[in-house]
């Protein structure tokens, strides 16, 4: 049975478990190069969706702070 290697929060690499040594907490993750076509329609749709969700979050945050 083979395991897939994930990255970030999905792979569980973003947090250290309580049993690990504190020196491993500062371990750096190697940077990855991403080739994203900024002119692709899918990229534009994704950017609009992300911005929309962020605006909703900001609006909710403002209304929660006022309460």
From TrEMBL:
Origin superkingdom: Eukaryota
One annotated GO molecular function: calmodulin binding
Chain intervals for the UniProt region annotation (Disordered): 1-46
PANTHER family reported for this sequence: CALMODULIN REGULATOR PROTEIN PCP4, IG-LIKE DOMAIN-CONTAINING PROTEIN
Bias (Acidic residues): 30-41
Family to which this protein belongs: Belongs to the PCP4 family.
Protein name from the UniProt record: Purkinje cell protein 4
Entry's Gene Ontology cellular component terms: cytoplasm
């Amino acid at each position: 049975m083979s395991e897939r290697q994930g990255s970030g929060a999905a792979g569980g690499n973003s947090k250290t478990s309580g049993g690990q040594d504190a020196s491993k907490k500062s371990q750096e993750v190697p940077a990855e190069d991403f080739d994203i076509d900024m002119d692709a329609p899918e990229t534009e749709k994704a950017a609009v969706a992300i911005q929309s969700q962020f605006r909703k979050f900001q609006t909710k945050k403002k209304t929660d702070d006022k309460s």
